[in-house]
């Protein structure tokens, strides 16, 4: 029952993920963090079985940190997304797939903000906004209607609030709390967004 969402603004990427950990009809906890920082300027959101997300996220984070220490610089968001995609694709073709869907958000000095949508089959595409999970069925129409390129943080937050309201109104499950973070040139920070 995971739900991830992100949208690219003028000089930032606004991301959100529900904080529930559930299995079948039972909620295990309500304070799960489904976002993993990959560098000072890149963030990965993961949806899928908790074990796969935890193992895969830790593996990617550790290897990107090792590459940064070895090379003396952090990978760009584009390079990071391609590295994640390759690892998903390699696992799918060898030892068994990670059942993880992800969004990779980052801001680079030259390329600016970017968002990559990846699924558990290793498909990757650069998008202006994206969502994973059952909540995406309800929010893509809202994003299609209200998203526009070059939005300010306030405008993007307003669109995010509309998405939260749509989920609360239409989705059978109760996704009542979200972690919201912004990735920009200053790094990654958590922001407060009033939830309906």
TrEMBL record:
It comes from the Eukaryota. Keywords: Cytoplasm, Nucleus, Proteasome. Component of the proteasome, a multicatalytic proteinase complex which is characterized by its ability to cleave peptides with Arg, Phe, Tyr, Leu, and Glu adjacent to the leaving group at neutral or slightly basic pH. The proteasome has an ATP-dependent proteolytic activity. The keyword Zinc-finger does not apply. It comes from Salpingoeca rosetta (strain ATCC 50818 / BSB-021). PROSITE patterns: PROTEASOME_BETA_1, PROTEASOME_BETA_2. The lineage of its organism: Eukaryota, Choanoflagellata, Craspedida, Salpingoecidae, Salpingoeca. Gene3D superfamilies: Glutamine Phosphoribosylpyrophosphate, subunit 1, domain 1. Pfam families: Proteasome. It is found in: Cytoplasm; Nucleus. InterPro entries: Ntn_hydrolases_N, Proteasome_beta2, Proteasome_bsu_CS, Proteasome_sua/b, Proteasome_suB-type. GO terms for cellular component: cytoplasm; nucleus; proteasome core complex. Belongs to the peptidase T1B family. GO terms for biological process: proteasomal protein catabolic process. Component of the proteasome complex. This is Proteasome subunit beta.
């Amino acid at each position: 029952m995971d739900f991830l969402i992100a949208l690219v603004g003028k000089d930032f990427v606004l991301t959100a993920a529900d904080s529930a950990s559930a299995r079948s009809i039972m909620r295990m906890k309500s304070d799960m963090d489904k976002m993993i920082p990959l560098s000072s300027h890149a963030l990965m959101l993961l949806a899928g079985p908790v074990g796969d997300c935890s193992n895969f996220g830790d593996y990617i984070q550790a290897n990107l940190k090792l590459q940064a220490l070895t090379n003396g610089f952090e990978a760009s968001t584009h390079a990071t997304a391609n590295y994640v995609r390759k690892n998903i694709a390699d696992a799918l073709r060898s030892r068994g797939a990670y059942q993880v869907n992800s969004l990779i958000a980052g801001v680079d000095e030259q390329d600016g903000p970017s968002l990559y949508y990846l699924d558990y089959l290793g498909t990757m595409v650069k998008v202006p906004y994206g969502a994973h999970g059952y909540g995406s069925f309800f929010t893509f129409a809202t994003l299609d209607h209200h998203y526009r390129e070059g939005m300010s943080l306030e405008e993007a937050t307003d669109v995010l609030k509309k998405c939260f309201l749509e989920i609360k109104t239409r989705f059978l499950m109760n996704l009542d709390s979200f972690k919201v973070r912004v990735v920009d040139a200053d790094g990654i920070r958590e922001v407060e967004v009033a939830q309906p």
